[in-house]
Amino acid sequence: MIHYHGTPCGATRIDVARFLSGRHALIPFVRSEDIGTAAEFCQSFCVDNGAFSAWKQGVVIDWETYYEFVREWHRHPAFDWAVIPDVIDGSENDNDRLVEQWPMDLRSIGVPVWHLHESLDRLEHLTRSFHRVALGSSGDYSSPGTSRWWSRMGDAMRVACDEHGRPKAKLHGLRMLDPAIFQRLPLSSADSTNAVRNSSNYSRFGTYIPPNASTRMAIIAERIESHQSRAVFGSSDQLVMFD
Global pTM? Predict the structure, then answer.
């Protein structure tokens, strides 16, 4: 699977370049200051529409501006894909409308989001219609890793995978770059800001604390990257965990 590390890194340009070199990055539209560095040093990068951050902060995004931003970058050789605009706690009609409005010239690199609070019918439709589908935690399932979340994810996997447990489309886990999560799911990719967010948490490093941010971020990233997702989902798997 591809491990996408969320940005911005919040460090010096040298530290950002050192950390991203040879890795995969997720660039949020609302904080895209690291995209030039990612384009230069990453193996690949994808672009997130920023809906989650906007939802948390109560900000409204101009989607036309986002479309133009994607157009500017999508021909770069390291560009992978872009998340189609979505409303985190919106209705299925809201999100279907945004999928329909996604520009045709960007169709091949657009990835829709299925939110866990939405119907399984919508998930089935998206996996039949798109090469890749992103899974987003929302509503009563907004916290990845809880028992309620795992129960819903089990339902989702039984819809998104065929009778052999193979995903019908590539699956991306939004905010799921945690080995305790992605090792149990047949994800093609996942993302999180774990490496960046926790690089200043010195308790993560024991007695010998690396002096620079790039090394601290790299240590956390390497611990994550040493794990891989499952190849298939077993229909009899019990994904419910106790909190």
Answer: 0.92
